[in-house]
Amino acid sequence: MGRSPCCEKAHTNKGAWTKEEDQRLINYIRAHGEGCWRSLPKAAGLLRCGKSCRLRWINYLRPDLKRGNFTEEEDDIIIKLHSLLGNKWSLIAGRLPGRTDNEIKNYWNTHIKRKLISRGIDPQTHRPLNSTTAVAVTTTAIVGANACLDFRNSTPPSKESTNSINETTNNLCMPTKDNSSSVHDTKCNSTTTEESRPTPPPPEEENAASHALDLELSIGLPFQSNYTKNASFNSSSSAESKAFFDFLRPEKATPSTAAVVVARAMCMCWQLGFQNQVCSNCQSYNGLYRSSYC
DNA sequence: AAAATGAACAACCGCAGATCG
DNA sequence: TCGATCTGCGGTTGTTCATTT
C-alpha cells in the first residue's frame, strides 16, 4: 500500500533556508498561527515540504528559543533527565524552556557524551564504563521485573505496571544516613536479588548524575491536592497512565496530572532534593521506585 | 597559506502513533 | 473498524566553521 509522500518532492527546495524563506514562514505563522503543516508551504508561498517548515520553525525561528551556549546547570539537568528518560529528546526539551529537542540531541552527541566518557561513564547507561557485567545483570533483573518504571521505553506503562506504581505511592520517606551506599545501590526491601545490585559507581559519577540537583519535577505541588486526595485511583486506569505521560509534556500537563504522576512515580525524597543520600523508602538516590516493586 | 581533520549544528529521512472520515 | 492522512520523534547525514599540521 504505502503512504503518499508528505509533499511533491519534485517542486520543493531542500537544504539551507534563505532569509527570504525564513521571513515568509515567520510572517505566515504570525498571521495564521501554527498548524496544518502540510498546507502551510503552499499558503505561505514556500517551495518547501511541510515537515521542513515545521522543523525550521520549531528548531530555529520560534521566538521563544534561547540561543547560545548551554549552562552548567542545563548540562546537569540534561544528564539527569537522560539518565531517567533515555533518548527522549522531546521530553527532555520540554523541561528546558527555550531549548529544542534537536538542539539538545546535538549537544548531547557533541558535548555531553564526550564529557561523560572522559569521566569514565557510559553515556547510555550512566554507569561506569568498566562495569558492563554488573550493568548487564542489572538490566536483566529490571526487565525481568517488567521494568515497571522504565522511562527509557516509550511504551506507556502497562496496566500491571501501573498497578505496581500505585502500590508504592504516597509513602513519605526520608533519606538515611547511609552514605556508604552507592548512587545506584539497590537495597530494595522487596525482591531485588543480590546479583541484581550494580557495582557501586565511583564518586565521579555522583557528580555526573547530579543527585543533589533538585529539578523540581513536581512543579512544587503538594501531594495532598484535591485530585490525589479525592480521586479513587483505579490503578488500571488508562487516564492515569496518560496523565503520567502528559506530565512529561509540560504543554499537556496540568497541575493535577503533575501531582498525581509525581506522587505515583517519584518518591518524596526526589521532591525534597535528598537525592544525594540513599532513601529509606525508595531505596535509591534518584527518587524512582525500583522495579522490584512490580 | 593551504590542506586535512574534527567539531558543531542544521536539515533530512523514515517510522510510529494519533486523528479523521 | 479500517484505511488514509497528518504530525511528531529520533536517528542520521550533510554542510559549515574552527583548529591543527
Explain what this protein looks like in three dimensions.
The protein has helices at 19-32, 40-44, 50-61, 72-85, 89-94, 101-118, 132-144, 159-167, 203-209, 226-230, 238-247, 255-265, 268-272. Helix 11 packs across helix 12. The protein folds into 2 domains: 9-61, Homeodomain-like (Arc Repressor Mutant, subunit A); 139-293, no CATH class. Residues 1-5 and 132-294 have low confidence and may be disordered. It is elongated, with a radius of gyration of 22 Å. By secondary structure, it is mainly α. The chain has 13 helices and no strands. The protein starts with 18 loop residues before the first helix and ends in a 22-residue tail after the last helix. It is 44% helix and 0% strand. The longest helix has 18 residues, at 101-118. The chain binds a DNA duplex (21 and 21 nucleotides) through helix 3 and helix 6.
